[in-house]
Amino acid sequence: MARPAAPRTKRAPAKASATSDPEPAAPQKTSRRSKRAIIMRTAVKHFGTDGYDETKWAEVAIEVGLGGTALYHYFESKQHCLFEIMADALASYREAFAAATGAHDEYLPGLRAALRSGFALDDYEILRMRVLVDKQGSIGGKSSTPREEESRLRARNNIRGLEMDWAAYLARGVAGGLIPNNDMRLLARAVLAMNTSVWQWYRPDGAIPLSEVADFYVGKQLAIIGID
C-alpha cells in the first residue's frame, strides 16, 4: 500500500542579499540656487568671449536647457544677470584682499600679498573680470525694475567698498611711516586701475603667462605707492 505523500512546507521568501545591487536612486533635481549659478557661469562665458552686447539672452537659455520664459524666473533680464555677475566679481575681489592682508601681521608683506591676490584668478574669474571692466559704466545709471536696481546697487557699493578698503590699508602704511603720504582715495584708484586694465587684453591662452604679468604689474603698483 502506497504511503501518503508528505505535506509540502512553504518556503519563506528569500531575503535580499546584503551585497545585492541597490535600487537606482531617483534623479535629483537641480536646486534653484544651483541652476542660477549655472546660468551665471554660462552668461560669463558668452559675455566674456563674445561680448555682452553681442550675446543673445536666448542663447544662454538654450545652453542651460531652459525656455526663454523660464529664464526670467531667475533673472529679470540680461542686464539683471550682468549686474549680479559684476557684484559677485567685486565681492570676490574684496574677499581676496581681506584674506591676503589678514594673513600677515607685518604691513609690507601684507601689501604685496594683497596686490598679488588681484592676479590670482582662474580662467572663469578672468572672464568675469573682463565682463566687469567692459561694462562697469553701466552701474552708474538707475535701473527701471526693483530687482535690477538692487543688483546694480550691490555692484556699485562693492566698487566703493573696494576703493575704501584699499584707501584705508594705504593710510595705515602712511601712519606707520612705511609709504609716502598721498591722496589715499586717488592712490587706491590708481592701484586698482592698473589691475583692472590687464583684463582688457589678457587671455589665458596668450603668449604671456599670468605669473609674468603679475610680476610686472605688482612691481609698477608698488612704484606708484612709493616702494622701490
UniProtKB/TrEMBL annotation:
Pfam families associated with the record: TetR_C_24 (PF17932), TetR_N (PF00440)
InterPro entries the record matches: Homeodomain-like_sf (IPR009057), HTH-type_TetR-like_transc_reg (IPR050109), HTH_TetR (IPR001647), KstR2_TetR_C (IPR041490), Tet_transcr_reg_TetR-rel_C_sf (IPR036271)
Region (Disordered): 1-34
Keywords, alphabetical: DNA-binding, Transcription, Transcription regulation
HTH tetR-type domain residues: 33-93
DNA-binding region of this protein: 56-75
Domain of life where this protein originates: Bacteria
The protein's name in its UniProt record: TetR/AcrR family transcriptional regulator
Organism: Pseudonocardia ailaonensis
Lineage: Bacteria, Bacillati, Actinomycetota, Actinomycetes, Pseudonocardiales
